[in-house]
Amino acid sequence: MHLLPVVKHGDSVLTDGVEQIGEVTDEIRNLIDDMIYTMRNGKTPAVGLAAPQIGRAIAVIVAEPPPEYEGEEATRDGAVVLINPEIVYGAGATVVEEGCLSCPGITADVQRPAKIIIKGLDSDGRPVKLEVEGALARIFQHEVDHLNGKFFFDHLNPIKRQLLKSRIRRT
Ligand SMILES: [Zn+2]
Questions:
Q1: How far is the CA of 24 from the centre of ligand 1 (A)?
Q2: How far is the CA of 143 from the centre of ligand 1 (A)?
Q3: Separation between Cα atoms, residue 120 and residue 55, nearest integer Å
Q4: What are the residue ranges spanned by the domains of the chain?
Q5: What is this structure's pTM?
Q6: How far apart are CA 167 and CA 98, in angstroms?
Q7: What is the pLDDT of residues 101-116, one digit of tens each?
């Protein structure tokens, strides 16, 4: 497994959107293993990662499930992996402080639905549908945003957003 360089804000792969995956090949699974490794072993460990953040414009996200995550569904090496994820339902609202490996130096309180239903494929290409809330629902929404070319600060009003973008560390 390899530690992959994390792409930073300003790179077009983070804003251009992604391709859906047709067939889950060994090449994709190797990439997923590298993503999980990178999420866990980077300079700043993270709880989630989306493929555009390692420079690949494909619909793959990985997340570190909190201890309360029950079951083995869609897991790989203890991480939750979703291919072609789609959020099909959201309810409630919570505000949580978020940050992002691709935007070093900034965080912001972001309001999102508290509970979601997300569909996709697991790393074996099997369809899965997960109903999650709390930390994992938050991570999934943040990572699916990356697939759609969005950042967490895009949920803020334009003034706050501009201020935050100007503070992203460039080094
Ligand atoms: Zn992020």
A1: 23
A2: 6
A3: 21
A4: 12-166
A5: 0.96
A6: 15
A7: 999 999 999 999 999 9
CA 103 / ligand 1 centre spacing (Å): 7
From residue 150, alpha-carbon distances to 12, 16, 47, 147 in Å are 11, 9, 18, 7
CA of 136 to the centre of ligand 1 (A): 14
CA of 127 to the centre of ligand 1 (A): 25
Q: State the DSSP code for 134.
A: T
Q: Bridge-partner residues for 118, per DSSP? A: 87, 130
The two most distant CA atoms of the chain are separated, in Å, by 44
List, for residues 37-72, the tens digit of each pLDDT value. Answer: 999 999 888 999 999 999 999 999 999 998 878 777
> Looking at the domain 12-166, which fold is it?
Peptide Deformylase (3.90.45)
All residues at 6 or more sequence positions from 105 whose CB lies less than 8 Å from its CB, including other chains: 167, 168, 169
Say how far residue 143 (Cα) sits from the centre of its chain.
2
Point out the catalytic residue in the list 27, 86, 97, 143: 143
Cα distances from 23 to residues 27, 44, 66, 72, 113, in angstroms, run: 10, 31, 29, 22, 31
| Catalytic-residue membership of 143 | yes
